[in-house]
């Protein structure tokens, strides 16, 4: 990898690095992301779990069962509460919160997912595919 991709939380106590460029980025409108972010969507970039390296700080981890039945791990800063990532270890992937990356403008959303769960007042992005649920990305991290 030639470029260094790093990010940090709101207060600056969490610093991390991505070993590879994200596979894709999307806007997630699922109700879990709405609650985790306090907004109507979450902008995440998909990476392999092993590509995430925590450089500084302490992450709090919250695990919950998603609508799919899979366990989702959400990590956030123990000081400012900033959402850092959501991971489904069973699939080997995670969604890193794009606004926390040092250069978020380099990762515009390529799709909108779980639009069936969007709030009635949510503005849907134009010019990118919209999916009522999550498309199948289960083979992204297959060995």
Notes on the structure:
This protein has 143 residues and is mainly β. It has one domain (5-117): Metal Binding Protein, Guanine Nucleotide Exchange Factor, Chain A (Beta Complex), CATH 2.170.150.70. The chain is 5% helix and 36% strand. The chain has one helix spanning 31-37; strands at residues 5-8, 15-18, 24-28, 42-48, 52-56, 59-65, 71-77, 83-88, 93-97, 112-113. The strands form two sheets. It has a seven-stranded mixed sheet. The radius of gyration is 14 Å and the shape is globular. The protein starts with a strand and ends in a 30-residue tail after the last strand. The mean pLDDT is 90.
Notable characteristics:
143 residues; Metal Binding Protein, Guanine Nucleotide Exchange Factor, Chain A; 7-stranded mixed sheet; 3-stranded antiparallel sheet; 1 helix; 10 strands; 5% helix
List the SSEs and their pairings.
Elements: E1 5-8, E2 15-18, E3 24-28, H1 31-37, E4 42-48, E5 52-56, E6 59-65, E7 71-77, E8 83-88, E9 93-97, E10 112-113
Parallel strand pairs: 3-10
Antiparallel strand pairs: 1-2, 2-5, 3-4, 4-9, 6-7, 7-8, 8-9
Helix tally?
A: 1
Uncertain segments are: none
Distance between the termini: 20 Å
| CATH fold naming | Metal Binding Protein, Guanine Nucleotide Exchange Factor, Chain A
Shape: globular
Query: What would the average pLDDT be, to the nearest integer?
Result: 90
Q: Which structural class fits the helix and strand makeup?
A: mainly beta
Counted up, domains total 1
Quantity of strands, as a count? 10
Q: Architecture in CATH?
A: Beta Complex
* Beta-strand percent range: 35-45%
Q: Please give the share of residues in helix.
A: under 10%
CATH class: Mainly Beta
| Strands side by side in the biggest sheet | 6-7-8-9-4-3-10
């Amino acid at each position: 990898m030639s470029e260094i991709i790093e990010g940090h939380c709101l207060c600056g106590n969490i610093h991390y690095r991505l070993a590879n460029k994200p596979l894709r980025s999307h806007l997630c409108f699922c109700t879990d992301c709405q609650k985790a972010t306090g907004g109507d969507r979450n902008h995440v970039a998909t990476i392999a779990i092993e590509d995430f390296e925590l450089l500084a700080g302490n992450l709090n981890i919250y695990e919950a069962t998603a609508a799919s039945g899979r366990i989702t791990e959400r990590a956030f800063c123990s000081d400012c509460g900033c959402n850092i990532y959501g991971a489904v270890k069973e699939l080997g992937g995670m969604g890193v919160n794009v606004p926390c990356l040092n250069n978020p403008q380099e990762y515009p959303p390529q799709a909108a997912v779980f639009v069936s769960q969007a709030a009635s007042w949510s503005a849907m992005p134009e010019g990118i595919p919209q999916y009522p649920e999550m498309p199948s990305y289960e083979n992204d991290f297959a060995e």
